[in-house]
Amino acid sequence: MGRLFLGFSMVCFVASACKNDSSVTEYRDDGDVSAAIAGNGASEALLAAGLVIDTSEQIHTQRKSWFAKNMVALSDADSGAAEPPAVPCQLNLQENGVLVPFALEEKMAYPLPQGRVVYCSSGKLSWAIQDISLREKVTKLGVNDSELEKVSFFRVPLDQPNSFAALTETNDGVVVIFEGISNFARQNSLDAESVVAGLLAHELGQIRELRKDNQTNLKSAHERLRSACLVKSKSVASDAATRNRRVDGCRTSMMLNTRQAKYAADQFVVEVMGRKKYAVGIRPTELGKFFRSLSSTGRDVGDPHPDAIDRAIQFERNLERVGINLLTGGVMRAGESDEKKN
What we know:
single chain, alpha+beta, four-stranded mixed sheet, three-stranded antiparallel sheet, 9 strands, about 45% helix, about 15% strand
């Protein structure tokens, strides 16, 4: 099947909606986004969108359920068992010559195999905003140029407190942050700028983990999910009980990252913060407070997120190990600069 994906320069030319500044304006052409996604095979689009881990446990559980239902429906596509999507953001994608209904859920964002990001809001598909200013935030924190190589940053105008990272098969990193993170931080009396910078660094840590061993983790995850989720039914059409079992099995297999990998990404944040210790305008301890504010109630038994309190405690202890003063919130006290020079 030929690729129909519209390159970024073509999108700007057709829409005349892009600006030559530090960010790409939000692009609200439902038909253009649909055309771009339709250029992917259904399984490729699903795997790209499913192989991420969300900051929000609730959204991550929602993503796993969405992923599993679509994957199982895709397995049954040639038997006619797939049901039309029941949500406004819906597409028809090709898979091995079969037209497959593909639903994107409301208030969710999805990376595409080519490295761009789309989201569904009020029943409309839109491009996420590619925002260079987010790169500047992590540079200010202490991330170096080599760690930012082949990484794009996207801002999603949705109110959920969420972020995630993804890696394409061409080794390009994608970091996505929802605007709801800043609102959530302020509602919890946290410094939003510090929380956003810390989370962006955490997502870069996720990308570093995914890139280890020449993407062995990513490739094995692709193979595992294809094996667990894209299994053709022996019968012409699965009964409801069989389909439910397959959906549950697919959901439990969606474990690209482990708790250990999540902690490793947190440790990357500590490593970065330790390089400057007192980055101007950044409070390193705010990220630990953010972790504490995350609810662990009603969590999915298969969710790879660490316990929020344990995670915050470990993060704060590691900050102390690299010389960051927890009592001052990581903010340099008056006269401390002169003391350090002496």
